[in-house]
Write a structure and sequence with these properties.
Elements: H1 6-17, H2 21-57, H3 70-98, H4 108-126, E1 137-138, E2 147-148, H5 151-157, H6 159-189
Antiparallel strand pairs: 1-2
Length: 190
């Protein structure tokens, strides 16, 4: 048994790294990697959403193929989620060590990084979404019994605009909240 308290040793190690450029550089690196992994997860999730969207807006006999490959949809989501979690853990470790002062909350910045990554991935994926056979109508090329879209199909069709827009709004609110909380924290500590 060691006479050194592990909690005290870890705290001492964290203090030794506080404010160092290498710790901050690693925090930035892992933050960017987490952003890219979250963008991959957002891209893959939007690609899966497109598959369900296409099945809803086109008829049974219409085109159900999406332009985003199955491998991206199948592997991108789990790889993106796991990589995001791993990079965020490393980001949190080095962000805490590289901070020259006490940070506000470790959960705020990672949430903003994930939201930004999901927004970027979704924006990119929606530009690649499959167009319907005809807007407003599920075309039936076999029996010529075309069915007009219901409200759900219209909502799914317009998702290429409102889904990335909603994520952008959430990201802007998150960044704004983070900046406001930082200002309040700085005002209290000064």
């Amino acid at each position: 048994m060691s006479p050194i308290d592990p909690l005290q040793a870890r705290t001492t190690d964290d203090r030794d790294d506080r404010g160092r450029g290498s710790a901050r550089a690693l925090a930035v690196l892992f933050g960017l990697c987490a952003l890219a992994a979250a963008a991959l997860a957002g891209f893959a999730a939007a690609a899966v959403f497109d598959q369900f969207r296409v099945m809803s807006i086109n008829s049974v006999f219409g085109n159900w193929d999406t332009t985003i490959p199955v491998a991206v949809r199948g592997l991108g989501l789990p790889v993106g989620i796991l990589a995001t979690m791993g990079f965020l853990a490393l980001y949190g470790k080095w962000n805490r060590r590289g901070a020259a002062r006490d940070v506000l909350s470790p959960a705020v910045a990672p949430f903003t990084i994930v939201l930004l990554g999901l927004t970027i991935g979704t924006w990119i994926a929606t530009t690649m979404w499959t167009e319907p056979d005809a807007v407003g109508v599920a075309v039936d090329p076999t029996f010529s019994q075309h069915a007009p879209w219901d409200a759900g199909a219209w909502i799914l069709y317009t998702a290429k605009w409102w889904l990335p827009g909603l994520l952008t709004l959430f990201t802007v609110v998150s960044v704004g909240g983070r900046l406001a909380a930082r200002r309040r924290f700085a005002a209290r500590t000064s």
